[in-house]
Structure formats: structure tokens, C-alpha cells
Design a protein that fits this description.
232 residues, alpha/beta, Rossmann fold, Alpha-Beta Plaits, 2 domains, four-stranded antiparallel β-sheet, 6 helices, globular
Length: 232
Amino acid sequence: MTAAINPQDAWKQMAGVAAAELIKDGMVVGLGTGSTASFFVQALGLRIQQGLQIVGAVSSSQVTQTLAASLGIPLTDLDTHPELDMYVDGADEIDPKLCLIKGAGGALLREKIVASAAKRFVVVADPTKRVEQLGHHYPLPVEVVPLAITPVSRKIAQLGARVKLRQTGATPFITDNHNFILDCTFPQGISNPAELDAQLHRIVGLVETGLFINMASQAILGGPDGVQVFQP
């Protein structure tokens, strides 16, 4: 007997399936990372089994690449295809301007690289990810070179954040790029994402932030009322 899917996963699946319907023959597609993105990847794999012919797909993490390969999705890379037609990924928070916090899954650097190579970035989510202001429900992840973890932590704390090294058990979480992640909580939220992003990028040793600003062109949300589409 198959276990019933919980409502939030059902909403994520609705969004992923709707996004997969946007993929056309001949496209090069970017594949996101995380629970909602995995529903998109599964739906894309089903469409390919049904006859959709894409040129290839670029994965934003090793986990997604393994899933895509298992579903028969043809894989490529940014060396072969430096420009993608569409990138589809989830988000931890989405504000009214479609600015995002991403990185709960630890793939924020590769996600941002693949997203920046796409002509169109579609974010898929459930309604719980919509917020009026970023930073109230999820910490902001930043990827940091291990050598610089202590000085970077101190400099981010000076910007008003509570900073915590992400760990797996008793050891630091290691990204696919062999870096560490700092989860940064701003008690008052993030009032100006672009300004904060610029401040963080001035810190030497910080590789990338989980703030995705002016990158998403569309949000597809699955929810109790069906699929809804939002533009910035």
C-alpha cells in the first residue's frame, strides 16, 4: 500500500509538474536542488519517457545529477552549453519582488551559477515560502572557504547577524565545492537584500550568498487552490 503524500509535498509536486510543462523540445535545461526541484526533475523525466526531446540538462548538485541520470534525463554541462534556456529550482523564501533566499540544501553556489547561465529562471514552491520580507523564517546561508571561517563569521556578526556554522552531526557540512556554510540569522529580517548582498560580497573568503536578487522571472506555486503563477 502506497503512503499518502502530505499536503505540502502535494503542493510542491503540483508546482514541479507545472514547471515541467514549460519545457519544450530542443531546450537546454538547468535542474535545481531540493525537495521541490526534485518533483520537477521527476516530472521532466516522465515527459522525456513520453517523447520530449531536450538537448540536455545541467544539474546544480551531485544529488540532482544522480536523480536525473536515474530517470534517463540526458546530462550536459556548462562547458558544452554555457547558455541555458531555462532553470527551474525551489526557494526557502520568496518576497513580493521575487527576491529569494536559497541554500537550505547546501547547493547555493552551484545553484546561482546555473541560474545565472539561464535565459529564464522559474522558481517552484508551495505557499509557505511566500514572505513579505526575507530573513524571518529561514537563516541566510553563505558559502565560505574553510580557511576563512572565523574571520568571515566575525565580520558577518558585525553586520548584525547571529552566525552559526552548519554541521552534519559533530562535523562541519561540506558543500560539493569543499567549502563550509554559515547560516546567518538577522533578527529584524533583511530590509534591503541588495545592500546586504553587496556588503557580504566585500568580505574576503566569502564565496557566495544565498540571496538571489533580480534573477527569478516567474514563480509557480502549488497550493490548496491549485497552481498560481506570479511575476515580479
